[in-house]
Amino acid sequence: MSSRRRQAPWIHRNSRLLIAAVAILGALNTGYITATKLFGGEAACPTSGCEQVLSSPYAYVFGVPLSLFGLLAYIGIAGFALAPLTVNPDQNKPLRATLENWTWLLLFIGSTAMLVFSGYLMYIMASQFVAVYGAGGICYYCIASALFALTLFVLTLLGRAWDDVGQLLFTGIIVAMVTIVGTLGVYANVGGSATADASSQSGPAITSTSGQAEIALARHLKSINAKMYGAYWCPHCHDQKQLFGQQAWREVTYVECAPDGQNAQPDLCTAQQIEGYPTWEVNGKKLSGTQTLQQLAEASGYQGPTNFQIGG
Fold first, then answer.
1. What is the mean pLDDT of residues 218-223?
2. ∠ CA 9-106-95 to the nearest 5 degrees?
3. What range does the domain containing 91 cover?
4. Residue at 199 is within a domain
5. What is the distance between the alpha carbons of residues 88 and 91, in angstroms, rounded to a whole number?
6. In terms of pLDDT, which residue wins out, 173 or 88?
7. Are strands 285-288 and 254-256 parallel, antiparallel or unpaired?
């Protein structure tokens, strides 16, 4: 009686292609975010939560967009998944087997680290943003990345028959512990002071110098009770301050919305339904995003000099 060769389960035969496909989706997601950060754009999002989260100190590691590291991680996972498939087993079976074994281990280590790190970021988003701003604090790109990381981890676990489950569990625990310790170390200063410049939780120092036109506009805005709502960690808010310059900015009425910021007024921001930073309130109208000084002059009915040095 002839014996029939047992066929490998469908998930085992296709797991590497599935892992690569998910990793490519993750790379597209993080690549888009990275491009917007590096080239000065804003990620398209149905709510302001994406920009709030992606502009916060948690979105940068050593001054580099966190999404760039995510992009590299997804590219690495895709490479590990596809590498053995480039070797023909009929021509070089030992090399194919070696690549299979080593890349499965690297896939498990990588997907475990990504899952743990994504879980921490989900906790931060829920506790630091959603808890304060509700649906306005949700970053959909971040959720998508976390789901991709979870899917990669599950596919890695189910994608092959693991010989030593105990050793796999031990490896997973070690990787998770190292990832948690490293993550806490990277973000140790976030919340108290994201950078040396922002140690007072009032944001980086304004380095530009105001001219007479900037000062006159700032005083006019104050006289009509115009306000700017922002957060100390928001880079676009800092850009807005730079347009006014040091002297003029002292005249502007500014409302700090970040709960841990200096002289914070988060309840007022919530009452005014502020969803993104910066937001100007001028003559009863809301102006979202960084405004040029000429735009503020026109919106406020300013009639003074308009030879603005920076923000015209």
1. 95
2. 70
3. 10-186
4. no
5. 5
6. 173
7. unpaired
In terms of domains, do 132 and 216 share one? no
- The radius of gyration computed from the CA coordinates of the chain, to the nearest angstrom, equals 25
CA gap 246, 207 in Å, rounded: 7
Same-domain pairing of 128 and 248: no
Spatial distance between the Cα atoms of 255 and 37, rounded to a whole number of angstroms: 25
**Pick from 110, 193, 186, 142: which is nearest to 26 by CA?**
142
Q: Note the Cα 210 to chain centre separation in Å.
A: 32
List residues bridging with 228 in a β-sheet: 254, 280
Distance, CA of 28 to CA of 202 (rounded, Å): 34
On the CB side of 221, CA atoms within 13 Å amount to: 27
**Model confidence over 241-290: pLDDT tens digits?**
999 998 899 999 999 998 888 889 999 998 998 888 899 999 999 999 89
**Has residue 52 got a pLDDT over 80?**
no
111's CB contacts (< 8 A; 6+ apart) are 77, 149, 152, 153, 155, 156
User: Do the domain assignments include residue 154?
Assistant: yes
Chain length of the chain = 312
pLDDT at 195: 37
CB atoms within 10 A of CB 152: 30
Provide the β-strand partners of residue 256: 230, 264
Whether residue 278 is preceded by a cis peptide bond, meaning omega within 30 degrees of 0, is yes
Within 10 Å of residue 1's Cβ, how many Cβ atoms? Answer: 3
Alpha helices in the chain (DSSP H): 10-38, 49-54, 66-82, 93-124, 131-133, 140-158, 165-186, 212-223, 235-244, 246-249, 266-271, 293-300
